[in-house]
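Usage

Read records sequentially. Each one opens with the input sequence:
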Amino acid sequence: MKFMLMAASLRQDSVNKKLIRLSESMLTDLGETAEVKEFSSYDMPIYDGDIEAKGLPKNTMQFIQDMNEVDGLIFSVPEYNFSMPGSFKNLFDWVSRAKPMPWAGKKVLLLSASPAVVGGNRGLWSIRVPFEACGSFVFPDMFSLASAYDAFNPEGKLVDANLTSRLDDVLKRFVDFTQKL
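and closes with the structure output:
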């Protein structure tokens, strides 16, 4: 199976990017094909109906093409003010303007890493709503990494073996979920 992974963060040393790279490595160890995409590669203007009337932005179309080439999507999204970042919502909204609905039927796993003690979990709940409203199959379990600034060793692995085991379990079950759908 083939998976597209993306951290919805622009910061170079983002803990969400670290979590995505670790997830890529773990999926590869499971024998799956995992391709990390950079969020910044899909730069789009702020959604504007006047721009949409002239056609969807090139990067919107590229994102749709890229996500249509995989079996499952894995996003690691930071939490901003108990919700999703505006930049991710903007990408989501642009993609949702294409017809037929590009998000419909997509298998999605949501992850988050945060320096806070709840690991971005509150933001993940706000992200589920638009995905599910647009017809995506969002995996029931989400993975939130709390205290993320201290969670990784210099090799990019999680320091806590229990968290490593939990992430591995979530990824394995998401692969199974994707295969069954």
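Summary fields computed downstream for this record:
- The mean pLDDT is 96.
- Residues 161-180 form the longest helix (20 residues).
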